[in-house]
Amino acid sequence: MGVLRDEAMRFFNMAYEFQMQGRLEQAVAYYKKSLEVEPTAEAHTFLGWTYSMQGKLEEAIAECHRAISIDPEFGNPHNDIGAYLMQMGKLDEAIPHLKRAMEVLRYDNPEFPHANLAIIYEMKGLWPLALEEYERALALRPDYRVASLGVMRLRANLN
Fold first, then answer.
1. Is the pTM of this model over 0.70?
2. Which residues are registered as beta bridge partners of 106?
3. Tens of pLDDT, residues 82-102
4. CATH topology classification for 1-90
């Protein structure tokens, strides 16, 4: 089992490198190779992220759902679905996914769903709620520029 995991991780790392270089077709191919060896929530999520970079938001969402079916406590795919729905203009549909991302046990960037929810609230004119979410994001990561700019902007607008 360890050998398969190592091979899957090797393909995953190659895919990530291609993705960071903007070589998205190669990234897709290697994420798929990783998934063939050993399906993981991470590989599905990152494949989805690559699809989103190609403008394939429906495919990206489908990959995130696959990731959630493997590991419902992995935060990235919940937040990513919310972010993709935001890009599609489906703000109300995005909210439950972002809130779920805030509840999961395993997430390296728990500030992201708070900031994304803040952006939705800000777009809807719900500025006090947006300010609360930006502040929650900053409490989790004090150097998070998106949230600090949001707080400054909203405090200026609310005064």
1. yes
2. 74
3. 999 999 999 999 999 999 999
4. 1.25.40
Q: How many CB atoms lie within 10 A of CB 136?
A: 18
Secondary structure (H, E, C), the chain = CHHHHHHHHHHHHHHHHHHHCCCHHHHHHHHHHHHHHCCCHHHHHHHHHHHHHCCCHHHHHHHHHHHHHHCCCEHHHHHHHHHHHHHCCCHHHHHHHHHHHHHCCECCCCHHHHHHHHHHHHHCCCHHHHHHHHHHHHHHCCCCHHHHHHHHHHHHHHC
Residues carrying CATH 1.25.40.10, the chain:
1-90
Which two tokens mark 105? 């046990």
Dist CA 115 CA 129 (whole Å)? 11
| Whether the Cβ atoms of residue 101 and residue 113 lie closer than 8 Å to each other | yes
